[in-house]
């Protein structure tokens, strides 16, 4: 992705107002975590926890980036973009990017692709990640 595709905003040390959609994304993320915790099926639990992390990442991107005009092509990968604009979340971005194919398979109904342990581990990790995203944005974490 070229530098022109996304502009990090605001510059370090300067606060900017949080776009309203960011709070919606964080709320959706928390709802996904709660849904995941109640889900008995491992594949759906995994997919929902992964979606919670993706929505939290989108919230961070909503604060730190501004859409730029693109001449067609695919939209940037959220995990790659997150690693670029929030380097402190880069390892998390790599971790969740690695699980994207498994989430897609789980969402497609392939129940055997995820064990209970994997789903539980991802829910725990997604909860940590959501907390970190909220802290990165400057939002107090909700219990969950």
Short summary:
With 144 residues, this protein is mainly alpha-helical.
Q: Would you kindly provide a written description of the structure presented here, covering whatever features stand out?
A:
The protein has helices at 20-38, 42-64, 78-85, 90-98, 100-107, 116-137; strands at residues 6-8, 65-67. It has 144 residues and is mainly alpha-helical. The radius of gyration is 15 Å and the shape is globular.
Topology, pairings included?
Layout: E1 6-8, H1 20-38, H2 42-64, E2 65-67, H3 78-85, H4 90-98, H5 100-107, H6 116-137
Antiparallel strand pairs: 1-2
Helix pairs in contact: 1-2, 1-6, 2-3, 2-5, 2-6, 3-4
Number of β-strand runs: 2
- Main sheet, how many strands, which sense, barrel? 2 strands, antiparallel
Strand order within the widest sheet? Answer: 1-2
Number of H- or I-type helical stretches: 6
* Overall pLDDT confidence: 85
The poorly predicted ranges are 1-11
Strand content: under 5%
By CATH, the topology is Four Helix Bundle (Hemerythrin (Met), subunit A)
